[in-house]
Amino acid sequence: MVISLLQEDVQLMVETGLDAYRFSIAWPRLIPNGRGSVNPKGLQYYNNLINELISHGIQPHVTLMHVDLPQALEDEYGGFLDRRIVKDFTTYADVCFREFGDRVLHWTTVNEGNIFVLGGYDFGQTPPQHCSAPFGYNCQKGNSSIEPYIAAHNMLLAHASAVSLYKKKYQAEQQGLIGLNLLAHNAQPFTNSTEDLMASQRANDFFIGW
């Protein structure tokens, strides 16, 4: 019997004592052009992974997007800078819920949404590497004063649309949970002055008050 690398990885999880594993589905691997035909090899890979986890008593926790937007959508309309991303993301989510939701009970729409926006559209450190001086690093395109707000807005709309779809179409039968996750920092006031208290509250609102 040939043991695949996937099976070896899951066996290591078993030996470690894991009872849950969170992983991200790569939208470009499942639907390479962002919309349209589903890649059967990508579908098979994720089915194999989910089944292997469950067969060893490990609960899959699935994230729908972790930075990797299909390049075709970035090229066509700028990805999360355009409202059209909401429909395409929801359609992609629908495929995932339909194909994997009979075994997946925990869904995350976007991994660390605040970091996705800051890294991709403010500092320019992660895809699509948009930024502008003086905020970013080696900026080639973008506007750090405007684009993070547009991308965050469209990302939240896409998240809300996918959650609404899941609750209306799948949750009653599949009995799963769905949400968004953020990277959390907690800003504390330097003193008890009104100015410092307001500054720390404002920082928390911007970073995790989503």
Describe it for me?
The chain has 210 residues and is α/β, with parallel strands linked by helices. It is 51% helix and 10% strand. The chain contains eight helices and four strands. A four-stranded parallel sheet has the order 1-2-3-4. The longest helix has 28 residues, at 147-174. The N and C termini lie far apart (49 Å). The model has no long low-confidence stretch (mean pLDDT 95).
Give me the number of helical elements. 8
Form type: globular
Characterize the biggest β-sheet. Answer: 4 strands, parallel
The low-confidence parts are none
Helix content: 40-55%
**Strand composition percent:** 5-15%
The rounded distance between the terminal residues' Cα atoms is 49 Å
Question: What is the ordering of alpha helices and beta strands?
Answer: HEHHEHHEHHEH
> Averaged pLDDT, please?
95
| Structure classification | alpha/beta
- Tally of strands: 4
Radius of gyration: 19 Å
Side-by-side strand order of the widest sheet = 1-2-3-4
Summary keywords:
210 residues; 4 strands; alpha/beta
Topology, please?
Layout: H1 5-16, E1 20-24, H2 27-30, H3 40-55, E2 59-65, H4 71-77, H5 84-100, E3 106-110, H6 113-121, H7 147-174, E4 177-179, H8 194-208
Parallel strand pairs: 1-2, 2-3, 3-4
